[in-house]
Amino acid sequence: MVFLCLQATSATVFEPTPITSCTDVDSPGYYVLSKDIEGLQNGKDYCIGIFASNVVLDGNGYSIRGEGAFDGTAIKLENSTNNLIVNFTASTNAFFGKGILLRNSSNNNIANSTISNSWAGIYLEYSNNNSISNVNASNNRWAGIHLWESSNNSIVNSNLSSNWAGILLTNSSNNLIYNNYFSNMNNVTIYDSRPNAWNITKTEGKNIVDGNYLGGNYWSSPDGNGFSDTCGDADADGICDQPFAIDENNTDWLPLAKVVLQQFNVSGFVSYGGNQQGEIYVCALKDFNSQPVICSKTSDSSYEIEISQGRYYIAAFMDVNGNETPDSAEPVGFAIEKKYPDEADLILVDRDVYNVSITLYDVDLNISKVIVTPENPVEGQEITINATVVNLGGSFAENFKVSLYVNGTEVENRTISL
What separation in angstroms does the CA of 331 have from each of 90, 299, 321, 344? Predict the structure, then answer.
């Protein structure tokens, strides 16, 4: 059961602070993009400038494109500390443009963002002790990430591909760079070489190419013949047998190797007691936020799928609509004893697995107890709509969108999980 609250209003949302155009942030707070933004501020070479500390700038999945200047920047931090820049797509078409620029700034965190189609994706200038993680810095004309006289920063869990240089270091030292995927014309370019760390101690855990150990980085190349693509891995631990020497001061001692996972069969039966009809597909998923690893149509109540070693949710759906994808009203089920899966229901596939049974259930959503406050609103007035949404069926119903329409036009929506 979900308690749903929708608001339709012409007034500004007060908290968090929304950003709808290029602007400066001069005080601490939580700022959220509410639309895509393009351009630069008048008379300035950047779109969003952060000149305060203790700021959260949440892109909310929207993009900033710094258009229209020779040296334009999408997001600029200067003399700023303890900030979080997250959930962005940032780019600029300026000749020397930068997606994100940190100047004289420390202890900031850039995460979960895509920075592309710029001269430099992320540029640190005289900036120390910052963290860059889970970013995609690709298709930049010069460098995915450029550190200029910047030290003691960390760059982890990131994809640095299709740039002239994946990482460019100028007079920069003691940076920790590991568990990244490199595939560029030049993966690393160093001016005035100084020591940096390119790996951590070999540690059990999922790495960026789905290997079972963390260590260094994966060194690929556009032609698929990079160091990690071709290195030996005699003990099949996902770590190359030899270190990767970058220059006389920099070595990745535990470069990641290509992972070749063994394939196994998962088989069982699918049952359904409802009245709908359609082809049945059985799927293996790593998580609920990504596409299935495989979906295979089964001709009868039994099934068999082949997947590589790992942990999976095993699920099935009935393709009532004939589009080969699960729709919200179609029967669906998971290989679990209960109706709603969690991480404990991941199935370990490290050998052939038999007798994995799946029961399909129907979805039956019901909206009731709709209350509008105030009861008789006037035009332009803020209203609150409370409603109760219940899944009366047995199927796992995740991520349904509930929308509010006024005179046939959608004015607000919320995504809910049941």
Answer: 40, 17, 11, 23
List, as one string, the DSSP characters of 354-399.
----EEEB---EEEEEEEEESSS--TT--EEEEEEEEE-SSS----
Q: How far is CA 272 from each of CA 293, 314, 321, 329, 418, rounded to the nearest angstrom? A: 23, 16, 17, 15, 21
User: Amino acid identity of 263?
Assistant: Q
Which amino acid appears at position 156 of this protein?
Answer: V
**Is pLDDT at 396 greater than 60 in this prediction?**
no
Look at residue 256 and tell me whether its pLDDT is greater than 60: yes
In this prediction, residue 344 has a pLDDT band, given cuts at 50, 70 and 90, of: confident
Centre a 10 Å sphere on the Cβ of residue 146 and count the other Cβ atoms it contains: 26
Q: How far is CA 210 from CA 154, 187, 406, in A?
A: 21, 20, 47
How far apart, in whole angstroms, are the C-alpha atoms of residue 115 and residue 122?
A: 7
What's the chain's average pLDDT?
87
Give Cα 93 distance to the centre of its chain.
24
| 390 in Cβ contact with 365 (< 8 Å) | yes
Can you tell me the distance from the alpha carbon of 122 to that of 142, in angstroms, rounded to the nearest whole number?
11
Residue with tokens 């009532």: 320
- What is the Cα 183 distance to its own chain's centre? 19
Dmax over Cα atoms in the chain, in whole Å?
75
- Asked whether residue 52 carries a pLDDT value surpassing 70, the answer given is yes
Residue with tokens 């501020």: 41
Tens of pLDDT along 36-50? 999 999 999 999 999
Question: 85, 58 in Cβ contact below 8 A?
Answer: no
- CA 106 from centroid of its chain's CA atoms: 24
The pTM of this model reads 0.65
